[in-house]
């Protein structure tokens, strides 16, 4: 039985999507069967996988959510799961923003995504879900479906503030909706050890959460290679396998896998 892990953050611009993308391929390189789910109406993860026109995709996660809202049978998985170089994925589109509006009026709305992903757990070792940078109904849906959450944080003051709020939301979801939900850890991204601010915020995160929330030893460096790889719709393991960022994601994958042993 596979494990659903969401990558989340209240703040945007913290490398959440690129971390989902590259962790998926890093886990696949370790021999794991991985499904990546784009659960953001901006569909940036879908773009990473090479989809240029997300509006033209016939079945996205938004369509599946609408099926759930309307109590309709889901289509066969072959109609909505795509694959690229050993990693499967479910794309998104702007339709997900329509779903978000509808969720506010639905009974049991927070469990809609769970009904889609639970049947897929037997087919994958890991299901990684990229979420939108907010604490709205879509993120609540993702947290309600997840077994674990990786919180991405870049070493900036505002991101640190958002981390506190996100952890409070995770606690509420665990106590009220999904008692199985665990915080896998805090992933520090876009790190530039040469700057004083990076060092100060990194130390602050360690001091604040050490012993309470795990902080991954793997830290993702701030490098142009990440942006270049996204531009060419290639994971770092393909585009820049010798880069420090690629090594960091591979190390992160090993940390994630080690938790299951």
Describe the protein's architecture and organization.
- The protein has 11 helices and 7 strands.
- The model has no long low-confidence stretch (mean pLDDT 90).
- It is globular.
- Helix content is 43%, strand content 15%.
- Helix 3 runs parallel beside helix 4.
- It is of the alpha/beta class.
Number of DSSP strand runs: 7
**Unreliable sequence segments:** none
- What percent of residues are in strands? 5-15%
Q: What is the terminal-to-terminal distance? A: 14 Å
As laid out across the biggest beta sheet, the strand order is 3-4-2-5-1-6-7
Question: What is the global morphology?
Answer: globular
Record keyword descriptors for this entry.
15% strand, alpha/beta, 7-stranded mixed beta sheet, globular, single chain
Summarize the structure.
The chain contains eleven helices and seven strands. With 261 residues, it is an alpha/beta fold.
What topology does this entry show?
Blueprint (H helix, E strand, L loop, with lengths): L2 E6 L7 H14 L4 E6 L4 H5 L12 H9 L12 E3 L2 E4 L4 H9 L8 H6 L8 E6 L5 H9 L2 E6 L3 H20 L5 E7 L7 H14 L14 H8 L4 H4 L4 H15 L3
Parallel strand pairs: 1-5, 1-6, 2-4, 2-5, 6-7
Antiparallel strand pairs: 3-4
């Amino acid at each position: 039985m596979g494990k659903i892990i969401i990558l989340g953050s209240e703040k945007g611009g913290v490398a959440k999507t690129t971390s989902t993308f590259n962790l998926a391929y890093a886990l696949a390189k370790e021999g794991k069967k991985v499904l990546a789910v784009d659960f953001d109406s901006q569909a940036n993860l879908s773009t990473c996988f090479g989809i240029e026109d997300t509006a033209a995709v016939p079945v996205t996660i938004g369509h599946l959510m609408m099926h759930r809202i309307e109590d309709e049978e889901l289509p066969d998985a072959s109609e909505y799961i795509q694959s690229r170089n050993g990693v499967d994925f479910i794309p998104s589109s702007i339709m997900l923003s329509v779903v978000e509006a509808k969720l506010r009026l639905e009974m049991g709305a927070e469990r809609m995504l769970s009904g889609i992903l639970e049947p897929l757990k037997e087919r994958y070792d890991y299901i990684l879900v990229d979420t939108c940078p907010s604490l709205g109904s879509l993120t609540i849906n993702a947290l309600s479906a997840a077994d674990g959450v990786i919180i991405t944080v870049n070493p900036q003051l505002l991101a640190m503030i958002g981390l506190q709020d996100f952890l409070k939301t995770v606690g509420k979801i665990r106590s009220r909706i999904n008692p199985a939900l665990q915080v896998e850890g805090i992933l520090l991204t876009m790190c530039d050890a040469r700057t004083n601010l990076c060092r100060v915020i990194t130390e602050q995160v360690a001091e604040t959460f050490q012993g309470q929330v795990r902080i991954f030893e793997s830290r993702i460096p701030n490098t142009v290679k990440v942006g270049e790889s996204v531009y060419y719709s290639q994971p770092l393991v393909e585009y820049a396998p010798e880069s420090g960022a690629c090594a960091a994601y591979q190390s992160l994958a090993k940390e994630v896998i080690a938790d299951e042993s």
